[in-house]
Amino acid sequence: MKNNWNEAEVTSIKDDLLALRVYTSQLQGKEEDLVLHGGGNTSVKILEKNVFGEEEEILYVKGSGWDLATIKKEGFAPVKMDRLLKMAELPELSDMDMVKYQRTAMTDPGAPNPSVEAILHAIIPFRFVDHTHADAVVTISNTPDGEERIQEIYGKHMLIVPYVMPGFILAKKIYDMTKDLDWSTIEGMILLNHGIFTFHNDAKISYDNMIKNVSLAEEYLQSHKALPLTPESAKETDTLRLAQIRKSISDLGGKAVMAKLNRSGQAIAYSNLKKVAEISDRGPLTPDHIIRTKRTPLLLQTPGSTDLDAYVAAYGKYFSENTPGELTQLVPTPQWAVWPGHGTISFGNSAKNMQIIEDISNHTMKAIYQAEQLGGWTALPEKDLFEMEYWSLEQAKLKKAGKSKEMQGKVALVTGAASGIGKACVDALVAEGAAVTALDINPQISETFGSDSVLGLKCDVTNSDQLEEAIKETIIRFGGLDMIVLNAGIFPKSMTIKDMDASTWSKCIDINLTSQQRLMQLAIPYLELGIDPSIVIIGSKNVPAPGPGASAYSVAKAGLTQLARVAAMELGGKGIRVNVIHPNAVYDTAIWTDEVLQARAKHYGLTVEEYTTNNVLKKEVTSKDVAQLALSMLGSVFGKTTGAQVPIDGGNERII
């Protein structure tokens, strides 16, 4: 493992202990083989004067909810050392009480809750303490003779600690083990099946010791030929099957979830292992991962629901055999799946959560395969894993979780998404928790949004092959399709029927009508597997009130509206809603530059403000207004409405 300490980067902060703590925390947090998504914790002990001028020792320990990779000073919770050390002397303390008393010992009530390992950090008599869940160390530990192997590697300079639950129990265990210990004889501790601690009064040496000791484990794996998986190629993805899987998981949990297919060479190789059913059923890499991934993944061996039924039954058995009696079983939905020949699937209610689960599963697969070469993968017993999954602190977090946003876990596709109404629709959907595939012919679409929740794809909507590929990429990235906003379109220059040229007519019909029909046709098999599926079509005021010189545009939009009416009748039996919005005079779009607006306003003898509010309500209609109406149509407000046409124009006298 590479040591990333850079002397030039710390020159200006050498006298700032908390800044040094931030620096080495980030070095470790950015190394995935050490820390994954909120795992691990670090601390520093600092002498400070309180408001009375009295000097007291404060433990600055990583706060709950912070990630070491991005932590800042405000991410550390300041806790009085004397109170923590008194807690360590208690014969017993529930974890809920521990959290409460740690909170009351803080010197800043606005800081985050201290790590559950705060007491343990306090009893280690060194200024800097580092704790990670290093893959290599835990991999070796998770083998039949893991303790002996760990002793062989570390027994002379590290304290070896048998596995116990994190929190007060672990702190008390180490407090009792070290009462007579000469701390100067060790560089750190190995927590079996859990991770590694290093410590020192110097930030660099504590960090150096972490890198050095994790490297010893990595070198051990290499010398014993415990090599990573050899990448393999994926099969052609059955996207309809993937959408069916995602639908089944959503139905089981009673709410929409997304599904991300991991087709990396490692994931394919793991999914193809002959023993994959056996080795994937033994438990996670570290017990704290169970909160994200559950104890085991779903193994998809045959089409249909039998695999999921078996998983649910196995989870029920696991719960009934381990519950002390007063607990309520969590929803038994798998958090990831192994799909032989295709890779692995992560399930989550957001793109971020799916990525976290994919990252954890990637490291888990690597560790399992390496451990198998050392004699076999041996995770903790079910009882210990159950205790972590149903830990009171984790259950409290679940109870505090707020109400989900309406579109959380749902997947949308928006055309013409690079600007104007389309872009506003993407923004509105993401704000409500959806993941969105944003299509546009503008190549900048891939960089327009900068969000993991948006898949921006350059796409010519008149090209059926590109549309089909866009839908497949949507399913692979997000698992399904629930909502479509058909927005892409052009408004050709004014031209009478007499003067209309064939190319203008054909292009307008192709983009504004035919492409929409083709996209709808390609998407329907996936919408039939969607969660409360819905289509919103952006029509035009020109449908009920056309104007001269706009025949191609008006005919295309009228045809699109008629298509929507037929679709509403055809798809209603499948639960797919189809509704139309007719906007008018939406001027904050790409075609309406300041110069064009000023010219049009001048033509009518109006100011720009008068021109943009030239309707019954005297209110300007914006892209955001149209997007909010589209959002309502896609959601529960229009849950029992289909085939509707709704104007959004501030009131147009011709239509009224």
Brief rundown of the structure:
This protein has 656 residues and is of the alpha/beta class. 42% of the residues lie in helices and 14% in strands. The chain has four domains: 7-223, L-fuculose-1-phosphate Aldolase (3-Layer(aba) Sandwich), CATH 3.40.225; 239-396, Class II aldolase/adducin N-terminal domain (L-fuculose-1-phosphate Aldolase, 3-Layer(aba) Sandwich), CATH 3.40.225.10; 411-586 and 622-647, NAD(P)-binding Rossmann-like Domain (Rossmann fold, 3-Layer(aba) Sandwich), CATH 3.40.50; 592-620, no CATH class.
How many strand segments?
18
Over the alpha carbons, how many angstroms does the gyration radius reach?
30 Å
As for the number of domains, it is 4
Runs in which pLDDT lies below 50 for 5 or more consecutive residues are none
Assign the CATH topology of the largest domain. L-fuculose-1-phosphate Aldolase
Q: Which class of secondary structure composition applies to the elements?
A: alpha/beta
Mean pLDDT: 95
The first-level CATH class name of the largest domain: Alpha Beta
CATH architecture level-2 label of the largest domain: 3-Layer(aba) Sandwich
Figure out the total of helices: 24
- Helicity range of the residues? 40-55%
How would you write the strand order of the largest sheet?
Answer: 3-2-1-4-7-6-5
Distance between the termini: 72 Å
- Give a quick account of the main beta sheet: strands, pairing sense, barrel closure: 7 strands, mixed
> CATH superfamily assignment of the largest domain?
Class II aldolase/adducin N-terminal domain
Given the C-alpha coordinates, what overall shape results?
Answer: elongated
